[in-house]
Q: What sequence folds into this?
C-alpha cells in the first residue's frame, strides 16, 4: 500500500501552518496494512510530515526499547524519563531530516536517545558520582555475543565482535551500552587509563576493517 | 580539528558514537557534522553498524506521564506562550503591561504577606488562561519572594523556573527553580520598575541552557508600590 493511500501524506508543510492539530492529521490509523503501523521507518517519515497520530504510534512502538537504553546508561528512572521526553521532542522536531537510505529508523532513534542519555549521565556523575567507579550494578553480561542477535545487520557485528580480543569487546560494550567514559571503564576493569584508550581504539580499527566496506 | 586521514576520521567518528570522546572534542565533532560530509558518513556508518549492541539493554515501560509531557511540548504554540525565543516577541510585554491593572487588585494580598514591606510587586498571570494569576512577587530592597498562588503547580516531572527581564536587556536572566512549596526567596535581586518577571516550565533541575526552553506560563511587570 502506498503511503498516500494509507493517509500518511499531508500536502502542506507542517509546523508553519497554524493548525497542525489532530483535526488536520489525515492519518486515521485506518489502514489494512498492519506492517506499516509497526514500521518505525514509515511512522518516522509520517511524523516528519507532521502526523501526530503517527508520532504517537511511534512512541508506543519504540518507547520501551528506547527507555531501556536510557535507563541502562543513566541508571535512575526519573532521569531516564526526562531523557526519553527530551529525545522524543527532538524526534518530533527533526523527523523531517530522517533519510531512510542512510540507515534504519531504529538506529536513528537510538542515536538521539543515547546522546541525550550520555549528556545527562556525564552531568550527574560529575556532580554526584564521580568517585564511584563501581557505578551500575551489573557488569556487561558474558553473553554479549548471544544478545546481539544473528539477524540481518546484527550477524555481521556479532562475527566482528567475536573476532575481537575479550578486553576489547568488553570496552566497546561498556562504552556503548553502559555509557561509561574511558576513565570509568579503566576503573571498572582495573586497568590504566592509557591501556583502555588504546583498547578502545584498536577495537574500533578492527571493527572498521571487519565491518567494511 | 577534524582529521583528513580516513583512518583517523573513522576512529574519531567511532569514539563519537561510542560516547568516549571528552565533551570538548565531542562538541567539535557535532559542530563539524553540519558541513563535513565525510565525517557525517563515518558517523552514520558507526551508528548503523553498532546499533545491534543496543539490544543488550532490556526494554522497560517508561513512566506513564512521559507521553503527556511530550504531547504538551509539541502542541503548536497557543496564545502568547512560545517555546523558543519568546522574549523576542513584543506581544508578551504588552500583556505583561496589561496585567498591571491586576497589580492593584493584588495589592491587598501583597501587603498582607508577612515580613516584607513591599516596595515593589508584580502579579504574574497566564496569557493562555485569560490572565489567571499564577504567582505574586513582592520585594523590598534586594530581598524578593515569588510565591505561587494556591493550587498552581508545574506539570508532573517538571519544574517552574523564574526569570527576570530587565528593561534594557531583552535576554531573560535565570532566578532559580521554584521549590516544591511554591515560594522562591531571593536574597539579591535588582528588579526595578519596568522589569518583567516570568515563569517557564523546565526540567526538574532548571533550564540546561540558561535560557527558557519550555513555554512561559506566567509573566508580569514589576511595579513600584
A:
Amino acid at each position: 500500500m502506498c503511503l498516500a493511500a494509507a493517509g500518511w501524506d499531508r500536502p502542506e508543510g507542517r509546523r508553519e501552518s497554524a493548525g497542525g492539530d489532530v483535526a488536520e492529521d489525515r492519518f486515521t490509523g485506518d489502514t489494512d496494512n498492519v506492517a506499516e503501523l509497526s514500521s518505525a521507518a514509515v511512522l518516522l517519515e509520517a511524523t516528519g510530515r507532521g502526523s501526530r497520530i503517527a508520532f504517537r504510534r511511534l512512541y508506543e512502538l519504540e518507547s520501551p526499547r528506547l527507555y531501556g537504553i536510557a535507563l541502562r546508561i543513566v541508571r535512575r528512572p526519573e532521569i531516564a524519563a526526562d531523557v526519553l521526553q527530551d529525545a522524543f521532542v527532538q524526534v518530533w522536531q527533526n523527523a523531517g531530516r530522517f533519510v531512510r537510505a542512510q540507515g534504519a529508523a531504529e538506529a536513528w532513534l537510538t542515536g538521539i536517545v543515547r546522546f541525550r542519555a550520555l549528556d545527562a549521565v556525564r552531568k550527574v556523575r560529575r556532580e554526584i558520582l564521580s568517585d564511584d567507579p563501581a557505578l551500575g550494578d551489573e557488569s556487561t553480561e558474558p553473553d554479549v555475543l548471544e544478545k546481539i542477535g544473528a539477524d540481518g545487520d546484527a550477524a555481521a557485528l556479532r562475527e566482528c565482535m567475536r573476532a575481537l580480543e575479550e578486553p576489547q569487546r568488553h570496552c566497546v560494550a561498556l562504552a556503548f551500552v553502559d555509557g561509561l567514559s574511558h576513565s570509568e571503564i579503566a576503573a571498572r576493569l582495573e586497568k590504566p587509563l592509557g591501556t583502555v584508550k588504546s583498547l578502545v581504539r584498536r577495537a574500533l580499527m578492527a571493527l572498521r576493517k571487519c565491518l567494511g566496506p | 580539528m577534524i582529521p583528513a586521514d580516513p583512518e583517523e576520521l573513522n576512529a574519531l567518528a567511532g569514539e563519537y558514537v561510542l560516547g568516549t570522546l571528552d565533551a570538548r572534542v565531542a562538541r567539535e565533532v557535532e559542530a563539524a557534522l553540519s558541513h563535513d560530509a565525510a565525517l557525517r558518513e563515518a558517523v552514520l556508518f558507526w551508528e548503523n553498524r553498532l546499533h545491534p549492541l543496543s539490544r543488550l539493554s532490556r526494554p522497560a515501560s517508561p513512566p506513564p506521564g512521559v507521553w503527556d509531557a511530550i504531547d504538551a511540548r509539541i502542541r503548536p504554540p497557543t496564545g502568547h506562550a512560545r517555546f523558543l525565543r519568546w522574549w523576542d516577541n513584543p506581544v508578551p510585554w504588552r500583556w505583561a503591561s496589561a496585567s498591571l491593572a491586576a497589580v492593584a487588585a493584588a495589592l491587598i494580598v501583597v501587603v498582607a504577606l508577612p515580613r516584607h514591606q513591599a516596595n515593589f510587586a508584580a502579579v504574574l498571570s497566564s496569557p493562555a488562561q485569560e490572565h489567571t494569576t499564577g504567582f505574586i512577587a513582592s520585594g523590598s530592597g534586594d530581598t524578593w519572594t515569588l510565591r505561587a498562588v494556591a493550587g498552581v503547580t508545574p506539570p508532573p516531572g517538571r519544574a517552574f523556573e523564574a526569570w527576570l527581564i530587565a528593561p534594557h536587556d531583552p535576554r531573560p536572566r535565570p532566578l532559580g527553580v521554584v521549590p516544591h512549596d511554591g515560594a522562591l526567596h531571593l536574597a539579591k535581586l535588582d528588579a526595578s520598575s519596568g522589569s518583567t518577571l516570568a515563569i517557564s516550565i523546565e526540567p526538574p533541575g532548571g533550564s540546561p541552557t540558561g535560557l527558557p526552553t519550555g513555554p512561559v506560563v506566567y509573566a508580569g511587570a514589576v511595579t513600584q508600590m
